Amino acid sequence: MRAPGTPPFAAAITGLGIVSAAGIGAKATWDSVLHGSVGHITRLPALAGLPQDFLYDIPDFDADAVLGRSRARQMDRFAQLAVAAAREALADAGLEPSDWDATRVAVLVGSSHGGLTVYDEQTRTMNDKGDRRVSPLLTPLSLLNAAAGSVCLDTGARGPSMGLAAACASGATAIGTARMMLQAGLCDIAIAGGAESMRSRALFASCCRARAVSTRTGDPAAALRPFDADRDGMVSGEGAGMLILERPEHARARGADIRALVTGYGASSDGHSPAAPDPTGAGIERALRDALADAGLAPSDLDMVNAHGTATIAGDAIEAAMLHRVLPHHPPVTSTKAVTGHTLGASGAIETALTVLAMETSAVPPTANLERQDPDVHLDIPTGRARPARLAAAAKTSLGFGGHNAALVLTRA
Fold first, then answer.
1. What is the helix (H) or strand (E) element at residue 80, kind and residue range?
2. How far apart are CA 257 and CA 271, in angstroms?
C-alpha cells in the first residue's frame, strides 16, 4: 500500500499468457471462460481409490514440442507451463529479448508447491531402485524458484528474479510484488504470474482427509461449484498465467498497447489457522480495502470482482459475506475456477489475466456449474451466459492456506 500523500502508481499490463485445462493460450482459455465451458478433466490412476481421483489437466501440452526435448527435461512440469505462458505474454506485448536491457527485466513466479511432481517421481525411483538412480537435477528442478529461474534462462532476463510462495494467493502476490518493484524503479519490465502442476497422491489424500475437495466422482465436470448451495469442495488443476508489467513511461516510449493498469495492491495475513480462513473474513477484507485505498478508489468504483471462489463450503461463505459487506452497491461477482480448475498458486495470475480480458471485452463471464445459488450468498453472480457491462475498474481477490490474502485492483488504461 502506498504511503499517505504519495500519488497512485499504475503498472501497465502489456502482455498476457495462459496455459490451462480450459485452453492453451489466453484466447482459448478466455473463450472457454466466456461460454462457461468446463475444461479438460482426467482421472489419474495414481489417485485410484481416493475420494477424489481426478483433476483439471492439459493433455494437449507437449513440452518437448514447445520447449525442445533437452530443455524440457531440465524442468518440472510447473516450470514448463510457466515458460510457455511467459513466451505467449512476451509475444503479446511485442517484446523481443534481443531488444531490451536484460538487467532491467524482473521475473516473479508464484507457486504453492513448486516442483512437487518431479520430487514425487524421484522419491519413487529412490524407493524402487535405490539412491544411485536419483537424478542429480532433483534439487534445482523441485525448488519453488525453479519456474522463475527457467523463465530467466529462456528469455535472458537478468534483473531481480524470485519464486514467491503464499499458497493459493501466490500468483496475485507475484503481480503485486512486481508492481511494487516497478514503482521502486528496480526494473522497467516485469514478467510476473504463477504456475502449478500438482499430481501428488499424498497431497490429494491429505486434501481428502481435510474435506477440502469435492467427492463427486460420478460427474467430475460438475464437481467444482462455486457459491452453489450444493458445493462440497474444490478440484485441483494445473496451469500457468503470466503477465508483462511495465513502467508506464517505458511502455509508452516503445509504443506498446497498454491493455489495463494494476492500480492497487493489498496483502494481509489472518494469523488464524494453518488451513482455515478467518471466519470473520477480516484478513481478505483488509487486503481488498488496502488495494482500493492504494488505487485511490472507493468501493463503489468497482464494476466487477473476480472472486477466489473455490467451492469450499466455508471459504465461499466467508468471501461472499466479506464482498457483500465491503461492496454495498453489489457489483457482479464471478468465479472462473469451475472452468479452469483450482490452479492453486497459479490461480491469482490466471484470473487476473482473465479479468483484463473481461474489461477489454466488456463482459462479466458466468460462473459455471452454479445451478442453485446458496441462499446465504448475497451476491450478484451471472450464470449461464456472460453479462455485458462497462468495466472501468475491477478487483481480483485471492486467499491461501496459512491465512495469506492478496487483492489487486485493475483499471482501464
1. helix 77-93
2. 41
CA pair distance 342, 239, nearest whole angstrom: 9
**CA distances in angstroms from 144 to 172, 200, 253, 304, 328, listed in the order given:** 16, 16, 34, 32, 39
Percent of the chain with pLDDT over 70: 99
406 Cβ contact partners less than 8 Å away, ≥ 6 residues apart: 166, 169, 172, 173, 176, 265, 266, 267, 287, 348, 397, 398, 400
Q: What pTM did the predictor assign? A: 0.96
Q: What is the mean pLDDT of residues 329-333?
A: 98
Question: Which residues, in sequence order, are CB contacts of 150 under 8 Å at separation 6+?
Answer: 74, 75, 79, 80, 82, 83
Residues in CB range of 387: below 8 A, 6 or more apart: 332, 363, 364, 366
**What CA–CA distance (Å, rounded) separates 320 from 338?**
17
Q: For cell 508492481, what's the residue? A: 179
Q: Which three cell numbers stand for residue 383?
A: 450464470
| Catalytic residue ranges | 168, 308, 342
All domains of the chain in start order, with CATH? 11-253 (3.40.47.10), 261-411 (3.40.47.10)
Beta carbons of 233 and 214 less than 8 angstroms apart: yes
Contact 291, 409 (CB under 8 A): yes
Give me the mean pLDDT over the 347-370 stretch: 98
DSSP secondary structure letter of residue 227: T
Closest CA to 69 of 53, 58, 80, 57: 80
| Among 55, 16, 18, CA closest to 238 | 55
User: How far apart are alpha carbons 190 and 202 in whole angstroms?
Assistant: 35
Handedness of CA 295, 301, 304, 308 (dihedral sign): positive
For residue 185, is it left (φ>0), alpha (ψ between -120 and 50) or beta? left
By DSSP bridging, strand 404-411 and strand 393-400 are: antiparallel
d(CA 337, CA 195): 15
Are the C-beta atoms of residues 201 and 48 closer than 8 Å to each other?
A: no
Is the distance from CB of 1 to CB of 290 less than 8 angstroms?
yes
What is the structure's pLDDT at 298? 98
Q: Which residue has the cell 463503489?
A: 300
Residues 284/322, Cβ–Cβ less than 8 Å: yes
Name the grid cell of 248. Answer: 508506464
Beta bridge partners of 242: 17, 193
